[in-house]
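TASK: fixed-backbone design
INPUT:
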């Protein structure tokens, strides 16, 4: 019992809740109330009653606590064992959590390295094949933002940049048309307001 180094505590209680076997020799023969299993006395009784084990995490999630029913050796004259003992285990998860963390860290670093290499390759691709065209598109966009509505990118080709350029030019054309329409609407509004003011003064 207790050959697993991550097992903090192994207790086998007899049918009277005394320690029958343990990985800690000094605990043998002690009653339940004098062991670390004392806070789980109700769970031990429930497991013995239902003959179904229970497993759960400790509040700080660094221990795995397990309680299992165990049929004890048959008494003289018994055909089948009638006594039910309880196996109480406390498993330390610290090492398992550390290993899981290290594995996750290795995977994350590997992924980050692959992503970095991909980004570097992508950067070289854009730097040597698309930088000038993108820079021209950006410059045209800045001109449009500055109010120069007649500027167009007019990039040639059939790749994505050319398609973006065509879409940008259509958008710029639409903005220019909408701006002109807005200016005409403002002129009509100003004329209407001026005419209203003149009519009002003549009425007075």
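OUTPUT:
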């Amino acid at each position: 019992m207790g050959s697993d180094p991550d097992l903090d505590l192994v207790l086998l209680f007899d049918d009277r809740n005394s320690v029958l076997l343990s990985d800690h020799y000094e605990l043998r023969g002690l009653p339940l109330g004098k062991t670390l299993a004392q806070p789980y006395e109700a769970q031990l009784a429930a497991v013995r009653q239902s003959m179904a084990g229970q497993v759960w995490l400790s509040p700080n999630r660094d221990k795995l606590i397990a309680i299992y029913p165990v049929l004890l050796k048959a008494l003289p004259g018994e055909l089948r064992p009638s006594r039910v003992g309880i196996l109480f285990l406390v498993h330390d998860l610290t090492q398992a959590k550390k290993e899981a963390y290290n594995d996750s860290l290795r995977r994350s670093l590997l992924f980050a390295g692959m992503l970095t290499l991909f980004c570097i390759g992508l950067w070289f691709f854009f730097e040597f094949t698309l930088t000038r065209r993108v820079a021209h598109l950006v410059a045209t966009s800045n001109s449009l933002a500055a109010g120069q509505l007649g500027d167009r990118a007019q990039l040639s080709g059939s790749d994505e940049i050319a398609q973006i350029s065509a879409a940008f030019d259509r958008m710029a054309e639409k903005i220019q048309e909408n701006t002109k329409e807005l200016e005409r609407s403002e002129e009509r509004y100003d004329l209407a307001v001026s005419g209203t003011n003149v009519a009002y003064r003549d009425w007075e």
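COMMENT: The first strand starts at residue 7 and ends at 13.
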